[in-house]
Records
---
Amino acid sequence: MGRPQVFKDIGHLLTMRGALKKEGRRVDSRDLAIVKNASLVVEDGRVLWLGPSRSLPTTYKKVKSLSLHGRWVYPGFVDCHTHMIFAGDRSDEFELRNRGVAYQEIASRGGGILSTVKATRKATMGSLVQSAQMRVQEHLAQGVTTIEIKSGYGLDHKSEMKILKAARELKKARIVPTFLGAHAIPKEAKNAKDYLESLQRTLLEIKREGLAQRVDIFIEKGYFNSSEAKAYLSFARDLGFQIAIHADQLSESGGTQLALELRALSADHVICLGPMSKKKLAQSETTAVLLPSADFFLQCEYPDARKLIEHGARIALATDFNPGSSPTQNIQFVGLLARLKMKMSLPEVFSAFTVGGAYALGRQHECGALDKGYFADFFVSKRPWQQFFYNLSLDSVDETYVGGRRMHRSNASFN
């Protein structure tokens, strides 16, 4: 075991303990569970003790310490839905969509996901790792310490394995890889059914090599239907994979209903839901992952976050960072959209980017909050919580720590 380290002189320590106790449901400002004039003790990358500095046990008063100079400390953000490993560029599609061409029309012309697939298949694993590591660093600079990364821009066995192996090479942040081979139907596939059956062989190899513990699928018109998805996801679940679903983004296509039936960890997007589907999702253990930056760029409707929250749903927010429908890594922008367009309160946004994101990844017992036994993943800021997800020009994060080790320091920070 390593030696403990004390982070002292914390002006305010936002722990999210209240939101954690509520399992991320119906969160208010009290659930931020802020400790004033606090200390944090870390050993072997996890929180050993935290609380008011006046209550710091004597045994820790003489160990190595680091002053945080009265600043705020927050649990690291969890971005639970990204497509961070890809090659190529789709800025031309932004112009097309801005001129009124629908997402489905762009895809039918060979654009969209298949455009990125073409570039990603050509890329070397080394180049994919290099570009993705830069994106990881950008997330760390915003206080994100846990990042889910989906495959899905390979759509053949060799390329999908290449993407997952690239994810394994990424450093500094906690990476949660997800196999999204069922992102779209590649041109060379006979049909969706045959393609999904071929993915079962890929799943067996992923399982043997331990490249991912999660499987996702895009259920939507022109991609995969819920019947095809059920057989595929059931096979994955029987192998021990956790399940997530791109559900009901562009139409009510049965994705959320299937997520509930299979007890998926999350249903992501969930824009096109009827009243009964919203209630059922809210009453389940499946987390609703909302992706407002994708809705912004696609100029579509936003999920009915208020109704979901009022029904008791657990909400997560994520960037959906990808080169097409959500080409942004800006966490503050996503949170601001959640407040402006989905009328989420600021405590609800904090919970969605911490506790909610952790639940969506099945990691609620180790990240998304600061408590004894949790990973010592946190960021340090001069900004109080009321100034987050408000002014996009602010440099909000001074330092980011993963497992108690500093992985980012801004030029404006100080020690």
---
Amino acid sequence: MAEITYQGESKFENIPSTKDKALRINLNADIYGTFAEIGAGQETVRQFFRAGGASGTIAKTMSAYDKDFSDAIYGIEDDKRYVTEARLRKMLDLEMDLIEKRITRDKHPSKIFFTYANTVATIDFAKKFKGHGWVGIKFQVKPGQAYNTIVLHLRFKENDARLQQETLGVLGVNLIYGAFYKYNEPKKLLRYLYDHLDKDQLEIDMVNFEGPVFESVDNRLMSLQLVKNGMTDAVMFAPDGNNVLPARVLYKKNILALRGSFRPVTKVNMDMFENSYDMFIKENKVEKDKTICICEITLSNLRAEGEIDEQDFMDRAELLCSLGQTVMISNFKEYYRLVEYFSLYTKNRMGLAMGVNNLVDIFDEKYYRHLSGGILEAFGKLFFKDLRVYLYPMHDIKNDVIITSETLKVHPRMKELYKFFKYNGKVVDIADYDPTILDIFSREVLAMIANGKEGWEPMLPEGIAKLIKEKALFGFESEEVLQKR
């Protein structure tokens, strides 16, 4: 199929209209498939009917709106829910299976099949829940080829069900069009999902690419694109590298978060994490099986020379995943915004593990000048929930003293505010730390690796140095390579 050329990346540039996209699909004699849409009408297929020439493209369209009828077709989910990824994947698999059974390749040797599906809940009458949904496409790009899949999750931001339906229809056309004409450029495909849409209309907070045409796609990198492009404020991926829906991971959980650059992850990071976790699970109302631990990296920590260094990000992510960690990438420069985000999904206990320098920064007024209530507004948002800071000590090398919550110094104007939170139990010291590793700093380890110096391996958790060497992460070069220079 011919590749379409966009005349620029800005939404103000000349890009194909929604009708033009649908029409181009309809006029391609090889593209043939079905539409299955639940919960928000048949908004996507309506765009194709309106564009004209749909008779050769649309094999079937359906909306199993009644729950009993939907269960009869797709089966009952274990959690009895309908707006889930599992339900969407069942829809895609069943509808594609039906196409294969009903349309013979002998009669249609050049057809490339697809199934588009969505399962969506729009805004409720009380306008308390704005709604969300799962959208996906299963498709081929060559006749008889194995199928590819794109699955995404969206959250509506509009306050009117009709507007949400129209937004869903445009998004569906963009997804189908991108699948066929931008599959070889997945980063662009993601950006073009917002063609003729605004980020005030919807948020896309998870996406996964699967199949032969996406073999080289790392879904963690696609997660990064969502945050980088402003499509969402935070994304998460599991230790296996697959993107996961934050709402599903965080829902009604106790949350312990460790923010860092992890460039690379050091023994200090893991000592901080392990000790704070041991303290956290001993807290009142914290159940181990309902607790999630997250290593969080802010977008500002991923920037190098003004741009996000994607390879550097992948290096950090790979090491954290090898340690069995769940990783979160966020747009939250300030801690209070991170806590606000967690509060969307849980009312349970929260903990933040951090070093002395991070806590001192929290009490710096310059980070809150954009708030009308200044630092008091930020602290109200940070500590009004059931939250506690687990503070890892710092070795003051110059004076050879250990700085803890009792001895750290904040700005004189913040002294009484700090005392208030400290002596109300919101800040607690990590006591069982390893004093032999306090002088390990990621930036020094990184410099040693980059400059080919020896002695950095013992500063890292077990197995991490081996991974860095095997995969040449963070600019590591073997002795053999250095000798050839």
---
Amino acid sequence: MKKVALAYSGGLDTSVIIPWLKEHYHCDVVAVCGDVGQGGDELTGLEQKALKTGASEVHIADLREEFVTDYLWPMVRSGGVYEHKYLLGTSIARPLLAKKQVEVALATGCDGLAHGCTGKGNDQVRFELTYKALAPHLGVISPWREWDIVSREDAIEYARKHDVPISQTTTKIYSRDRNLWHISHEGGALEDPANAAPDEIWMLTKSPAEAPDTPEAVTIGMENGVPVSVNGTRLSGVGVVETLNEIGGRHGVGRIDLVENRFVGMKSRGCYETPGGTLIYAAHAELEALTLDRATLRYKQRLALDYAEMVYNGLWFTPLREALDAFFANVCEVMTGEVTLELYKGNVRPVSRKSPHSLYSLDIASFTMGASYDQKDALGFINLIGLPIKVRALLGDRRG
């Protein structure tokens, strides 16, 4: 391979990969970075750093609105959560970053693609499945599956020897991934699930103990299953997420500590902060309960499990994901309204739900007897549903 497009973040792994590729493959390296909301600190000086360490070209693309509109909102409509806790912050960004990398590779005449994902992680699957879907003819280099670097300490030593500037040290070696939706923390003291998560790791959320002593209400307006406003102010997709991140983070909302099953077969432990996403999912669930009939809601919840696994496993660019998106989009057409949540020291409590498509009938649900529901109908219903139970019991009596 003569020219390779590298998915570049400026972190420890991709920083040392540039000189490593040039040393072992003698190729030109095109560094490709996508801005998915990781913050200015991570992007500041990124181009200069990549060029200084040997890249021949650097491409940085602002993908924030695309990330929200084409990736986050479809996931929100699905309601998908991985293993009861994980709101898929890293997983959902990888297909978009890999897609942009492929686009740059094709536009700049690259004949290869490279990434910094470890051979033990899920991200290698997510990136490479996207490569196969969008550019199956390009070669793929995965340094972690080839080089003799076996730990982050080794990578730090390689960086030191090759004058690669990095922020990681052997005493502060957490691996983090941040985007508009969340931030993840892995490695270091977190590798042993018996260890409590150190207070120092949290970056987006206040400790619930230090959160305000007064509850705060936040109202999220939704249209067709996705949020469009916060406290009555209509915002862009990016604006919604950023605003809710600030509000939720201030109240210690959105922290999880998870031992999860990686797609590659092992268990791993990570801590995640998703303050805005936690509020959005809570509002979505309340509106879902108000506007969907029982059969549709149950089926949607079943498919949400499959959708979450597909996102986690990197199966984004597949016909099944596109078909599921069509189902969720159709179901969510009635999910328009407002949900008010109360936040207090890490807790989220729904206090109000409104929708023009609400299926809730006060006349039917009220304890006051009304004409819309004849309670005598319940007798026949119970008799029919209970007939198999009754027959079995009678048969058991005769056997006795």
---
Amino acid sequence: MVNVASNPTASNDGRTASDPGGLSVVDVTSFFSETASGGVRTYLTAKARALSRPGVRHTIVVPGERTGFEEWEGGTLARIGSPVFPLAPAYRQLVDWRALRDVFETVNPSVIEVGGPFSEPILVRLALDGRRVPVVGFYHADLVRTFAEPFVDHAVLSPLRAILRVGARGMIRAVYNRFDATVCASSSMFRELRALGVKNVHEVPLGVDLETFRPLDREDGGALSDPGGADPVSPRDDAPPLPARNGAPVAVYVGRICPEKRLDVLLDGHALLPREEQPNLFLVGDGNIRDSMAARARDGGRVTLLPYVSDREQLVRVYNAADYYVAPGPGETFGLSIGEAMACGLPVLCVGRGAGPDRVEGSGASELYRHGDPADVARSLRAMRRHLGPEARKRARAHAERTLDWAVTFDRLLALYDQLATAGGTS
């Protein structure tokens, strides 16, 4: 890797990034980790591949240990040396607007998409230094439910919870109304942003790699180990297709192990069931409450933690090893893991809050439970038994094929970018 300021990158049609021809798309986000799962990274990976086409140059700016350029997934990844974010050590936070300015001077953006609401909008404006470039804000994170709610969950502190909600809503209006356009990925988020007073909102649903995430023949095997022991276990290449020793269904969650995913509500509901009615529940991922979740798993019950899976084919095997997927996060703005699971043929148990219900609506292969209600989790876990078997898996896959096409996503985004680039942007 080399110094950002001295490395104009080649476009896919032979031009360099300093060539004014073509559309130069720049993504800027801190929601990017080398070691943790995350929907933004999945989105940017698919975007880099889709924008690897003549007439488009794509640069993704993310924090890293050091500053430099590299080719990545058909586009260009520009890392800027950044500090580790204390509350989420797997992530770093962009802070150096001068280095970002150097990237902009090198790649000459036609349009910039900002993938975070905190430091990124301020850094982009500083780095543009008065240049008129259209700036789009992508509403990747539900700020109210992800950042304002999970950390204040006590009746005595409910006034502080209310204050945090009001503050988060005000922040959303202030931040996203400064963009030339705001993009969200689901109808529920579209309605919420408009209700909060955000203007010029565009709904652009995301997609799934339907060729990679696919049903496997059950004899191909899965990646889940038998949960008979108390300690968490790791995936094995020689694992059986299902941990069927106890005859119970297998449910899987894939994602960050963090407070906002409300895994506590899921586990509380799971624990309300008699042991003979409990599904085998696998939590796959990493995060800042993994130790506490592991302790709960060791306390008994059919709960097992597995480590973060970075290999996509191994992740496909994880999905295929389960009978259904659980989506407990009330702050999902799209639900990429839900889409991946359904593309692999998994019915979905989903919290009835956020964008998750949008993903499963009309599938005929899902159940919803009330947010924050362990008793309703237990009810819905029982109800998922009606969605077991090959017919439900076929319905889930068919729903993914109908609703989750990345080509549609990026065609819509490029049309918006072209419109904004033609109109010009704000400084």
